[in-house]
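Human: You know discrete backbone vocabularies at least as well as I do. Show me how you would write down a chain together with its backbone fold. No explanation is needed for now; the record alone will do.

Assistant:
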Amino acid sequence: MVRSYSNLQKLIWNNDSKLTNSANKKCGNEKDYYEKSVEKCQQLCKNIEKDSETRGKKQGQILSKSKAHPRSSSKNRSEE
């Protein structure tokens, strides 16, 4: 039983190291891959912030225009 267990451990370790090696070949090494992922995420967050700021400014302009020409409210309609 112990013998087969140790063989099983070796088999798992070998397969695991093969997977890690193939991942390292694809991604450089894991640290670089992680750092690149973090950089991409941070850049994406910056882009989203810029987009939301410009959208907010555009919406602010639209709102200020709509305040200049208010529509009659339901309160005014009920008085008529």
Notes: The longest helix spans residues 30-68.
